Amino acid sequence: MIDEILRTLDDVPALFARLEREITAERAHRYLAALESVPAPSQTARWGRVPVVERLLREDGVLDGPRVGWEPDFAAGGNAALTLGVEGRAKRVWLLAHLDQISYALDPGDHPTYPLVPLCFHMQRGGRHPALAVGHDLATGTVVVHARGEIVVDGPSIAFHAADDRPLGPGTRVVYDPQLAWDPGTGALAGQLDDTVACAAMLLAAGVLRHYPVEVLIGLTDEEEGAPGDANQSFCRGGRRLVRFFDPPALAIVSDVHESEAMIRGPGPRDLRPGDGAVFAERSSSGRGTVTPPLLYAFQQAMAESLGERGVLLRENWGGYVSRSEDINATILTPNIALVGFLCSNRHYAADRPRAHMDDLLHLARVFVCYTLLAHSDLWGRVTRREP
Asked: Its domain of life (predicted)?
């Protein structure tokens, strides 16, 4: 199988040359910095990060292709959809990641301190981190910063302490201020990163995939982050308003943070750390979310070994905790879900700023390209339809 995978990819015209030429650290940083510079509490991606995505795609000529479609607010559902190919509903591969970031609503307080209500899975265990209070500006149609300050956690208390004099009220959302940092020498990344790394990787992948005859939906969703709860229906609300418009895919690749150390819900990965490459896992939320079918998982294991021979690193994350994401929406239409993501420490600012590695973003983008092309190949049909 490894030789067959390599032959299939080697037969794709100029594939590995394009991966090296178009998926670069400099371009990845430009994408990531642009996304992280815009606050995106849930329910606001359409007004903040989606215009940034469109600008990046236009600057790099991705939207100029004859088989490229772009809907910044697909079916008025708040999600952005980038499509490749000529089919409307029938997209062979879905790539799903979320544009929104964790956020908090305000309860009444005495300025400058306001109690916070998590509209997310709150994980900060203590201390303080820079934060922004944002709201919608009707005059400009954008999300604007009303105040800077800090999210302060002291025991069970979660509060926003504003550094500005302006009083705040309902309709305000508080988000962490990512203050993205990249060290080109070490590759280290620090910032929000969830899920901007995967979004940036998908946009980079789109720049390569547009050159090939593929049918792809890249869904950049809103409201993936949601109120805490064990039920799958408590979050990922935005994606449910997107996937129902498309036919079942042959493959849905869902990408989000894979925690790089033991966290609240489970252990960290075995013998893996940020910088080791993109990662794939078998199940999300300890099986409460989705589980990759054995056939597809075996194919991913062979694919990972094959890609390693071409310098694309995809590592198996066995035992490490992976949270639920858009997989809970994709599973409504297909069992063929691949949980492919990146290692990141301190998800949701658990103990410090989240940290990841630039190399993993680059490998992730290249994996998206290769996996998508394999899912369009004759090899895929032979493997997935083979009779017992």
From this structure: Bacteria
